[in-house]
Design goal:
Length: about 70
């Protein structure tokens, strides 16, 4: 009974890991955009935007200025 149970658990773990690894590829290949461009961004996204990279300390600040297009 323990060998059969180990096979069931291992199969479940492999299926779970496979689904987790396949999910980003599924989202990238879907035809529908993840964020609807016709609607404004939610407040969480507009607040999070400028601070998304503040924890990066491996490269440092960017001293180059970029002109607006």
């Amino acid at each position: 009974m323990t060998r059969a149970r180990n096979i069931i658990v291992a199969t479940g773990l492999v299926a779970f890991a496979g689904a987790g690894l396949a999910y980003p590829f599924y989202m990238a290949s879907s035809k529908q955009p993840v964020i609807d461009p016709s609607r404004p961004l939610p407040p969480q996204a507009t607040f999070r935007g400028p601070y998304i990279n503040t924890g990066s300390q491996d490269i440092g600040p960017d001293h180059q200025s970029y002109p607006k297009k």
